[in-house]
Amino acid sequence: MPCGACNSLRLSSAPAGVLALALLSSLSRCSLLEPKDPAVSVLSPYFGTKSRYEDANPGLLPDPEAPRRDPELLEETCTPVQLVALIRHGTRYPTAKQIRKLRQLHTLLQARGPGEKGADATGGRNLGAALANWPLWYKDWMDGQLVEKGREDMRQLALRLASLFPALFSRENLDRLQLVTSSKHRCVESGAAFLKGLWQHYHPGVPPPDVADMECGPPRINDKLMRFFDHCEKFLTEVERNDTALYHVEAFKTGPEMQNILRKVAAILQVPVSNLNADLIQVAFFTCSFDLAIKGVKSPWCDVFDTDDAKVLEYLNDLKQYWKRGYGYTINSRSSCILFQDIFQHLDKAVEQKKRSQPVTSPVVLQFGHAETLLPLLSLMGYFKDKEPLTAYNYKEQMHRKFRSGHIVPYASNLIFVLYHCKNAKTPKEEFKVQILLNEKVLPLAHSQETVSLYDDLKNHYKDILQSCHASEECELPKVNNTSDEL
């Protein structure tokens, strides 16, 4: 529900008491709008998939609308002819499941006895009491929906990309943009917000029309591409619905690192340790991240944890992503080959059209999905793979791991393929080259660490996936042999 008329409520500028009263007395959802000046926290680098885009890309903070040109980007003799972007939705509200857990924790804090509500053992501020009185502003209706900050994420990304690739995002190409999105509201809304950012680029100061009235029309929903995991029976059976698939996640929750945090937080909040569990600790940690990302407020939830705690909780989140979306099981990544092949079908078509001196049908292809869309695809391509698997028992050995989801897929993360037409100064031969960008930075190729590849070489490297990975076969469950050898 848009709340654009309520920008006058600047949450970060109000004293805590005034803030609490304002929020408690207001029945308007518009009071949930965040300020423009984001707060900072030492915990911010460790929020995993709940990370703000600007925390993973801090160069954007001075001016989030200014294009950031990576010096590795090709120029001079090469002209970009197509851009295919896979974009995670912008900042969102917590899911209803997370909100229920937070409500459970909040109720636990409010139920503490009178003797537990004084100053803590060090004579300092009683965090348990502060959090019991801190307004619980998350409601069930929010359930993962895009927030105003998420629309800003998308609008600003559109402005930066349009400035970075002006020929592709030209006004004349607007009706040739191809937009695909997951059916989830936050993705559909992200696509619409991106289009409005493009409108702002073309028509500064002119209010955008409804997305349905724009030349390219609204984004097209395609869950088989953007939520391929929902359509893969093998993944659903062997990972999603399999209680043992996340063994290492559950084992880490009861391991020494998490148990230390459990005891520490119980002492800080002055509640019995038996009333807490790893899930409640994690939701408290994420509440700090949601308050920061959505409202720009550094709430008392952030004071419960230090950076050592945050590193452990980040690892818990990364373990889940690793085993459910990354390298933990082969089907996680192989289920994404339908999306990988779709990307190369767009690139193939652009190459063929360019060779025939025809206009490229879709100079810009934008696909809006989830962290769960991007991580399997990046794993399929061989990115961020550590020498040893992430397990419940090697936390210390994995302190410098490559697989850190907050650095890879924060809110508004984006994986971009740029196809170039290049003319060789020495020979009349024309070439097609590709660069891959992750979060607007050139991503060295997983197999060569080069920052650019001939298109044919890239296709050759991934020929197994492009030719042999068929989602229908990959996702088919093994047939059960019902014959018996018994006499």
TrEMBL record:
PANTHER family: MULTIPLE INOSITOL POLYPHOSPHATE PHOSPHATASE 1, MULTIPLE INOSITOL POLYPHOSPHATE PHOSPHATASE-RELATED. Disulfide bonds join 78-422, 288-302. Belongs to the histidine acid phosphatase family. MINPP1 subfamily. One of its GO terms (cellular component) is plasma membrane. Its EC number is 3.1.3.62, 3.1.3.80. Residues 1-30 form the signal peptide. One of its GO terms (molecular function) is bisphosphoglycerate 3-phosphatase activity. Keywords: Cell membrane, Disulfide bond, Glycoprotein, Hydrolase, Membrane, Signal. InterPro entries: His_Pase_clade-2 (IPR000560), His_PPase_superfam (IPR029033), Histidine_acid_Pase_euk (IPR016274). This is Multiple inositol polyphosphate phosphatase 1. Pfam families: His_Phos_2 (PF00328). The keyword Transferase does not apply. It catalyses: 1D-myo-inositol hexakisphosphate + H2O = 1D-myo-inositol 1,2,4,5,6-pentakisphosphate + phosphate; 1D-myo-inositol 1,2,5,6-tetrakisphosphate + H2O = 1D-myo-inositol 1,2,6-trisphosphate + phosphate; 1D-myo-inositol 1,2,3-trisphosphate + H2O = 1D-myo-inositol 2,3-bisphosphate + phosphate; 1D-myo-inositol 1,2,3,6-tetrakisphosphate + H2O = 1D-myo-inositol 1,2,3-trisphosphate + phosphate. SUPFAM superfamilies: Phosphoglycerate mutase-like. The gene is MINPP1. It is found in: Cell membrane. The keyword rRNA-binding does not apply.
